[in-house]
Amino acid sequence: MIETEHLSKGYGKKLAVDDLNLMVNTSEAFGFLGPNGAGKTTTIRILATLTKPSSGRAWINGFDVMEEPSKVKEEFGIVQQHMSLNRELTVRENLELHGRLHHIEKMERRRRIEDILDYVGIADFAGHLIEEISGGMTRRAMIARALLHEPKLLFLDEPTVGLDAQARRKIWDLIRGMKSDGATIFLTTHYIEEAEALCDRVGIIHQGRLIALDSPLELRRSLGLFTVESRRNDNNTEYRYFPDRDDAAEAVKALPPGGNVVMRESNLEDVFVELTGRKVTG
Fold it and tell me: CB burial class (10 A; 0-12, 13-18, 19+) of residue 57?
């Protein structure tokens, strides 16, 4: 569904995206992890035809992003991290405007709007102004708009940022449902548990370069599935990684008595920190 070949984007002397070679499979949920400034949003902007690359090529469902932008735009929907709906319009009116921009015939447009409002669970709020609904409802309205022209690919750039835990879980369920219905999901997020819960594969980008790519489980396995945290006298914490629980338990037994020791399963943040020395935070 997505392919890039030596894709780069520079701003002055800084490369926001640096020689990115990536393939995302059809009907895959793909997570793109990294700190702010790593190149995640720039990559999405290039793929969504919003920014031209400095060099390299990219394709969406076989269409060249630079050479065939009109065809590419029909293949994807996008939910950006900032609120991009018209606050002065109702939820339904926002969808109506989007449908007209995509030249969807009137009767078909109305049918799709009603179906998609029901699909994302906000049919009862269709007549409300955007400023009258919650952040979680707004995100679902943005997803509804992105799905209206029936794209095969959905870009979700920080889709749950700023939402409470309950609203986040509802968005997670919606993303799982879209994937089950055959959509390809390209997701950027700072929430590690979000990528672990939703994504088939994860790419980690750092300073514009892709530094790791695999399933969440295999990325953890490459580091060690179990972590031993031991707090030192200088209040710094040492992290050691082991392939299984037994090895981790033996390491705990070998530590001097006293102190603060925790044994737990590793996570994707552990992988990122070991690879880059930076946490995946905003």
Answer: middle
Question: Around Cβ 80, how many Cβ atoms within 10 Å?
Answer: 18
Tell me the backbone φ, ψ of residue 59, rounded to 5 degrees: -135, 140
Encoding tokens for residue 137?
């409802």
Residue-wise pLDDT tens digits, 94-117: 999 999 999 999 999 999 999 999
Among 75, 58, 243, 250, residue whose Cα is nearest residue 152:
75
Contact 202, 31 (CB under 8 A): yes
Contact (Cβ atoms closer than 8 angstroms) between residue 89 and residue 130: yes
* pLDDT tens column, 43-60: 999 999 999 999 999 999
Element (H, E) at 11: strand 2-11
SS3 of residue 113 by DSSP: helix
d(Cα 27, Cα 249) in Å, to the nearest integer?
39
Q: What is the pTM of this model?
A: 0.88
User: Which run of H or of E encompasses 31?
Assistant: strand 29-33
- Which one, of 108, 44, 36, 100, lies nearest residue 281 by Cα? 36
The closest alpha carbon to 159, from 273, 151, 97, 169, belongs to 169
Residue 275, both tokens: 């690879």
